[in-house]
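--- STAGE predict ---
source: upstream dedup step, 1 unique chain passed
mode: sequence only
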Amino acid sequence: MELFYNMQEREDMDKGEIINKISIRLRRRSGKTGRRLGITEVQGRILEFILVESRDRQLFQKDIEREFDLRPSTATELLKNLEDQGMIQRVSSQRDGRYKIIRFTEAAEGIRLILQEELQKTEEQLIKDIPQKDLDAFMRVAGRMLENLSGIEGGCDGGK
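--- STAGE serialize ---
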């Protein structure tokens, strides 16, 4: 499906609008995978986040709260549901037992592998036929946009 009918339409499109269209398509794709796995879209997004972020570091509930802009009680409920379904486990940190490290369970290994494969396919599709220098420029610009939005007081993030 072609996003733009012609170059003029693309040039006239608002930057926020194109970012939103990309986001919608990514969420749709993620939702399809989730339905196939029997999980909700939100659970899928959280599991994808855990999958990606836990490669390099230990994850805690605070990380989920920050990433998805969730209240602690909401994050607790979502994580409890994933734990009850046997997809994740929360293990006490050896440094501080008050903090729980979030990990995939062995029972969820199949889901983790499917999510990992889907993330890889999506990433490949997303950057297909785009030169590396353009991807590097996009990452710099998108990073700055995120920083700019983080500085907005009283915005959608409740002014945190």
